[in-house]
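help with this.
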Amino acid sequence: MSATYPAYPAEPRPRAAPPGTRVTGTRLHPVSEEPSPAALTPRVRARGAMLGLAVGDALGAPAENLKPSQIRERWGRIEGFVSESPAGTDDTEYAVFSGLLLADHGSALSVEHVEAAWHQWIADLDEGPFRGAGFSERGTLENLRRGLAAPISAQHRHSWSDGLAMRAAPFGVFAAGRPAEAARLVAIDGTVSHDGEGIFGGRAVAAGVAAGMVAEGPEAVVQAALSVIPEDSWTSRSLQRAVSVARRARVAPGANRLSVERAVRTSVVIGGYPWTDLAPEAVGLAFGAFTAAGGDFADAVLTAVNMGRDADTTAAVAGALAGALRGERAIPADWAAAIGPVRGSCLPSMAGRHILNVADRLLPDDERAAS
C-alpha cells in the first residue's frame, strides 16, 4: 500500500518539493531522508511513536470539540500548527506519567503500582485543578480522594472515555512486537481509571503501536489492534468500519482529502451526541486516519485533526501509530522542533519532562546502550 495519498483528481497538482523538504497540503516542511521500515532501529521507532503522539496532540488541540465545518471556517484546512505556542495537552502529560511508571516496573507492573502512582503524583498533591484533564481522569481523582481503590476507582460516568487510549502508546513501545503483552499491561494501567470499552480502546492502541514497532506496513498494525479486543465490542466494530471505509474512500473516483475525512468521520461518529471523548469513536477515527494515509505520518495526523471531535486524542493516537511504523525521521522537522518539555498544565508533577526521554527509558537496556 502506498505511504502517501494518491493524486486526487479533485485537487490541484502539488508543487514540487525542494530537496530536504516535503509538501503537506499547501505547506512546506523540512524532513530528513526516511529509511525503509526494515532499516529502522527500535530507538528510532520508539522515539517516533512517542514524539508522534506529542506532535499529534499539539496539532489537534486547537481543533478539539470542533466540527469540520467550524475548522474550515476558522483555518480552511489545518496543515500545521495554528497556535503561536503549540504544546501537548493532558494526552501527552498522562502518556509521560504512564511511560515513567512502566519504565520503573516493566512487565511486573501491577494495579497496586498504578494506584500508588496516581496517589503520589496526582491525587494526593495540592496542585490543581488539573487543567484540561478529561472527565475520566477527574472522576478517577474524585474516587481516589474519597478513599476508593481500584477497580472501584474506575466506577464513574466516563469509564468508557478515550483517556486510556490517549496514554496507551508507551505500552506498545515497551512491548515492541508483542501486541498481547502491550494490551495486558495497558489494561493493568487502565484498571484504576477505566472499564469496558474504555479498556478495549487502550488495548487496541497499545497493541497497534507494539505491532507498528516491528511492522513494514499499516495492515499489521490494524490486525494487531483487532486481535486483542472482543470481536463483538463497540470498539472493534467502530475500528473495522472506519478502516474499511478509509480503504474504499481513498481510492474512490474523484476522491479528495475532504471526502475521505467525511467518509471516515460519518462511519463512526454518533450524530448529535455531545461528548466527543468516546473511546470507540476516537479509536475508530484514529485508525481510520492512519489507514487513509497509508501509514504516512503527516497525512495521518492531519486527517485526524481535520475531522474534529476529540481531535487532540485522535491525532495523538494516529501520530503514535504512524510514528512507530515510520520512525522519528518521518515527522516533519519543524513539527518535531516545536515539541519541548511538557508544561505541567494538567499534571504539575510532570512539568519539565520531555517525551523523547521517556521513549528512551522504555527501551531494553541493550538498545539504550547501543544508541
Notes: The longest helix spans residues 42-60. The chain has a mean pLDDT of 89.
